[in-house]
Amino acid sequence: xxxxxxxxxxxxxxxxxxxxxxxxxxGVGWGIFILIILLAAGKGLENGIRQEFNGVATNTLFMWSExxxxxYQGLPEGREFSFKLEDVDLIRRNVPGLRIxxxxxxxxxxxxxxxxxGTEGGQYRVFGDYPEIxxxxxxxxxxxxxxxHKDINEKRKVVVIGNGIRKDxxxxxxxxxxxxxxISGINFMVVGIYKEKSSNGGGEDSERxxxxxxxxxxxxxxxxxxxxxxAITAEDGKSISQLNKTILKTVKESRKVHPDDExxxxxxxxxxxxxxxxxxxxxxxxxxxxxxxxxxxxxVIGVSNIMLIVIKExxxxxxxxxxxxxxxxxxxxxxxxESIFLTIVSGMVGIIFGxxxxxxxxxxxxxxxxxxxxxxxxxxxxxxxxxxxxxxxAGLLAGFIPANKAIKIRPIEALRIE
Length: 418
Known about the structure:
By secondary structure, the protein is α+β, with helices and mostly antiparallel strands. The protein is about 55% helix and about 15% strand. Strands 1, 3, 4, 5, 6, 7, 8, 9, 10, 11, 13 and 14 form a 12-stranded mixed β-sheet that branches.
């Protein structure tokens, strides 16, 4: 198999008609190139989407109250209601498998500036939260500290602002920690600045929100024990999607909502949505392989056709070799090696060009900055090894039919051919 004469013959056969060999090799190289590019693009999309979920507790359910759509226990249809702090404790006691239950209140933007700092002002969303919310959101404290339970217990008038608000209300080199901002007429001390973990941030609302203790928010803005909405995260190994029915049932019983009322409580199951995205990644990879392999098959068919032509051109030579007693398997092996060699070399060229293209795309992305939902397209070593395996199989398939035809040539008939 590693005979010097055999490899010399392979090179002579493939170089005897360079244009034909290059044209045939292009189909295989193009197929591998398309496969590599499609897989890299799929990986780039996957990286971008995963980056959007970076730091977010994906096993989380967000829940809020709506109007009832059914009368129940003497209470009318269309009734408005709010969650209470007691519902939070009720959920914690009655629903096993939960890691975090965060009650939350919020204040939206008003007509005028709701946040003032000196002569500067702006309209921002303000949240009343518990410290655990930082484990459920894609944020981290870049300076100072986040909220703690002492803030909650003592109802401290402290806030954590986003880095975007710092840019809006403060000078570049100005110290922020320890300063005060006025939120809807009440002064709060800034104790921390947060940033988003996602590198794809930068939207209109990016890092332009304010967090204060839940108890402080309730007292300052007369929310009593009302809860606007909750963020509920399951323990690792548990599915919040399997627990949401129990959670909803518990809250409905507490708020006297009809068990069959599907509109009274709104919720968003992040875990369910994340699983759908995970399924999308698998579908994208399947499509990439499917399209790439189809293009590769067309190239393999081209190699097979060319090998058939080569066999026809070498019919007399094969007949002479058979007449001199060469083993049919030796001839068959020669044809298969020619096919595999041509296929592998063509595919390696496709892999090299694909890698260069991916490198160029990443260089462009690095120069222009992050592109939304697309990040670091790449292929792993495993993908390259799979591509090499496909090339070997493709080479065998391309040479199988010509090789079988070659060993079926009878020496007498081959010698008669002029």
